[in-house]
Amino acid sequence: MMRLNLAAVQRWLLGLFLIGGLLACSGQTTMSSEKNHYEFSLENDSLEMRDGVRLAVTYYRPLAKAPGETFPVILEMLPYRKDDFFALGDYEYGSYFAKRGYVVARVDVRGTGGSTGPVPVSEYSAAEIADAQELIDQLSRQSWSNGKVGMYGLSWSAFNSLMTAHRKPPALKAIIAAHGSTDLFYNDVHYIDGALHIDSYAHQIDTDNAMPQSPEYRIDQEYFKNRFDREPWIFTWLRQQQDGDFWRAESLAFKKQPLEVPAYLIGGLLDGYRDFALDVSRTSKAPVIVEMGPWNHAWPEYGVPGPNYEWREKAVRWWDYWLKDIDTGILDEPRRMAFMRTGHAPATDRQTVPGYWRCDPQWPVEGARTERLHPQAGHQLAAIAPASGLAQTLPYKAGAGLAGGGWWGEQTGDMSADDAHSLVYDSAPLSQAMEIMGMPKVSLNVAADAPFYQWTVRLEDVAPDGQVSLVSGAIINPSQRVSRLEPQALVPGEATNLETSIHFTTWRFKPGHRIRLAVSNAQFPMVWPSPTAGVTSLFPGVDTWVDLPVVPVREQGTQACIMSPPQASEAAPFGRTIDGDGPVFSSVRNEETGDAIFTTSNELSWVLHDNLYRSEEMYRWEVNDATPAKARYQGDRRNVFSIQGREIDMSAQARIESDESYFYLTFTRVLKEDGVLVREKRWQERIARVYQ
What we know:
The protein is α+β, with helices and mostly antiparallel strands and 692 residues long.
């Protein structure tokens, strides 16, 4: 999916609304372009699959400069409604590549947007990936195609690009994937690190999937059957609380054969999926380029925080090499690039962060080493393992964790509020700078007074003035400590060992700063609170440690990277945003009452072809420390499309509550046309809690 995740994906949430548009014309429009670039046409069409389903496609097609000239094809397939929500954003990329001699085929997943058929049973269904294979074959055989196809995208389309590439369709020669995943249970938006995460994304997609088919927006019995009446995906995801065949069916991490299609991979240090790039690069049999920038869930030319660069320029060289047989020298350059953050004070609104680009031929880099530090009895962090001593206990505060944000990524303020409800271990002030790059590892020897808790580990930087910056973190679901496929309860009072990797990070700890390991048993609202109020324990000793991936310190200006500045994108000629307010985030914790509340809201309006579109949403998570089992989520989303004199008003409400044994889920859709109720449908289910 294009993974929404609370504040971590603020730019994506805003972009979801900003990228509204409507390509209602059934013919084609010719666009002019700069000198030496191709002119191109914008065409709406469809392609029929073997089962008769027709997939809607918008072509950005270069106009041949010579008789018989053909072009490679770049495919992107998403459920995000190319004819309304995503047309403006699609245009920025479709026009860029079309001008440079590529046909861009933007396709709506079956059952969504302008495509026919029912909404699939879930994301990345077998039908979706089979469609991608068939699309690649059909596109390679078009009269204007040179027979070579690439696949690309950010988030959802990165996921299905990787999945399709694993199947090796003959015409697919290379992919570009930004913010993807190889492990859908551990590294996706539903179960972060194996722990339940209720994201506003689930609500958003289950609302938008129920919108009528574009561009006619016909409301009839076929529409009700295929879209409005289809069960929301959030029920499926909540029933699948443990790893297994459902999550592993298309996860590359569990395939016997590694990737054999060349891949250009882009990640962000403030994105929850960043580990995927390392996973692919370690095992791929084909050439791989990895770029890891400082931004969030976004493309490098606009991701926040910067510095940014123009990745599309490099993408053209990548496509030229694999799809046009032009030796651009792309494989002669360093293939591993990461932005080294050189340490900064905590802040939630930075446009850029200090640091420099490191370019290396491979990872781990030359001179890299592992430094192991052990928590000490006196809450210190040192290289020598202490003798096993008394347990250090931590009362469970279910609403703690707000400072850490919605997932492992987004910009965070001072972490002291979270650390107040954590066990913290600090190194001595550093005498010289230390840089890390990679995935730190953690081992904890712990015990608990109940069969289930969740642990959080955070790597932090403590400045001399006491400000605490988050470097990276991870969740541990202890039921999966022996096997992800066969979870086991904790034995109350019995010590056990937990190990995990902290998500990929870069950071320079400056002289005078201290390295902090924070260990907690709550990370709200990132993961759903565990149900039992009580106490957990940590045992310092030889089995409790953190391993830091230390790399040689470099100074800015020594890197071999040449970064092109971002280029202005061509704005689509058919629409504009007229009003936007959001997203707005709020987190409140009352230490006296134990109440914790997190909310996010957004509103946007836009005009396209003289039609008015509006979207608004509001989401709320809440829990009380004294009653952690009774956590709650509620969400409301509404889309109002005023198209050619008709007003289509779709709203959806979701409510999730829990107790010690069950989740109680209610989802309601309401459809109005011209102010008159057309249909309302409600789903309700009690779902057993399974180690969540």
